[in-house]
Write a structure and sequence with these properties.
- The protein folds into 2 domains: 209 residues, Alpha-Beta Complex (Quinone Oxidoreductase, Chain A, domain 1), CATH 3.90.180; 136 residues, Rossmann fold, CATH 3.40.50.
- It is built from 13 helices and 18 strands.
- The strands form 3 sheets. Strands 3, 5, 6, 9, 10, 17 and 18 form a 7-stranded mixed sheet that branches. The chain has a 6-stranded parallel sheet with strand order 13-12-11-14-15-16, with helices on both faces. A 5-stranded mixed β-barrel has the order 1-2-7-8-4.
- α6 packs across α7 and α6 crosses α12.
- It is globular, with a radius of gyration of 20 Å.
């Protein structure tokens, strides 16, 4: 059953990037009424119940991650299915879903090889600001299109997404917790579990303790690693200890030497989550001979990394990227939820603020000042 007419919904729209902070004054996000077209074939309409604020959203606002404008922002969410497009048989009206920011087509070369995070049609649609179908379902009062953020646009009352962006979950999981599995947990825990080959007793250093980094800390701890957590914010270091980190270090100029000293030459695995070339350089330098450095951060496209090339061979180093935690959402989100229910991934501790629509700009100020881990827009 499908809604045949458009729905008028409120959404947070970004029209111009690079606004000067504080955002409480410049107000880059405007709450607008948009016309949402009904779902087409292979699409579902979702009433958003909770949406997390992520540095990936902030990177669009400040211009360090270029996107087509105007755009309805947000990409980490959970909600309830309210309508189905044609040819949708994976969901029913009333289902609760978590949304993942890469729609996995299931047919392209990466998908068929088990690397859904690299879905080629999904990546093309995300870059274009469309759904997987190539369509745009938003229009503003002037009848102009408003583009989709990573196929989701979570800061809205209702959204239309590809059914390949959605994962069904049990209805007893609170929406504000469920939302975090779509990005923070999928990216952070996914990188720790999928991109790093962690064995019990391995040393794992995590640079950057936002939602993604802290999810990686708890996943590495659950895998039996000796975890070193690195950040410049004392409260986040304290939380990292609660989540299983055995060691915490301030992110200063001496951190590489400190890690090398406590691990006898460098950590077996190092994960960088900040999206800073300088921090990635530190993470690589803090990795032991024969070790693996993984980055999930996304610096500005023009930034370049310089490392000693000979170290890759002479020290048998591995340097690799991980997008979406190298995850297959349909496989990994249920697995991580199972670990949460078993007490192995205390995801609820990542949630530091609950906000409403009118507080979004102020909340991004808080995120930019590193005064929050995961803030959730509750609808």
């Amino acid at each position: 059953m499908t809604n045949r007419g458009p729905t008028v919904v409120r959404a947070a729209v970004l029209r111009v990037v690079g606004a000067e902070p504080p955002y409480s004054s410049s107000r880059p996000l405007e709450i607008e009424e948009l016309e949402l077209k009904p779902p087409g074939p292979g699409e579902i309409q979702v009433r958003v119940r909770a949406a997390g604020l992520c540095h990936s959203d902030l990177s669009v606002i400040d211009g360090s991650r270029p996107r087509v404008m105007p755009m309805a922002l947000g990409h980490e969410a959970a909600g309830e299915v309210v309508a189905l497009g044609a040819d949708v048989d994976r969901f029913a009206v009333g289902d609760h879903v978590v949304l993942a920011f890469v729609p996995v087509c299931g047919r392209c070369r990466p998908c068929l090889s088990g690397r859904g995070a690299l879905c080629e049609p999904g990546a093309a649609a995300n870059a274009a600001g469309t759904l997987l179908s190539g369509e745009v379902r938003w229009h503003d009062a002037s009848r102009e299109p408003v583009y989709h953020h990573l196929g989701i646009s979570a800061f809205a009352e209702q959204i239309v997404v590809s059914d390949r962006s959605a994962i069904k979950i049990d209805s007893d999981l609170p929406f504000e917790i469920a939302a975090l599995f779509g990005c923070a947990v999928l990216t952070g825990a996914g990188a720790a579990m999928n991109a790093l080959d962690i064995h019990v007793g391995d040393s794992v250093a995590v640079f950057g303790l936002g939602g993604v980094g802290l999810a990686a800390v708890m996943a590495a701890a659950a895998a039996g690693a000796d975890v070193i957590a690195v950040d410049r914010v004392t409260d986040k270091l304290t939380l990292a200890r609660e989540l299983g980190a055995q060691h915490v270090l301030s992110a200063d100029s001496r951190v590489v030497d400190a890690i090398r000293e406590m691990t006898n030459g460098g950590a077996d695995h190092v994960l960088e989550t900040v999206g800073s070339v300088a921090v990635l350089g530190q993470a690589y330098a803090a990795t032991h001979r024969g070790g693996t450095t993984v980055t999930v951060g996304l610096p500005h496209p023009q930034e370049m990394l310089s490392i000693p090339a000979v170290s890759l061979v002479a020290e048998e180093r591995t340097l690799k990227g991980s997008y979406l935690g190298s995850s297959v959402p349909e496989r990994d989100i249920p697995k991580f939820i199972g670990q949460f229910r078993a007490g192995q991934l205390p995801v609820e501790k990542l949630l530091t603020h609950r906000i409403g629509f009118e507080e979004l700009n102020e909340a991004f100020d808080r995120l930019a000042r590193a005064e929050a881990v995961r803030q959730v827009l509750v609808l």
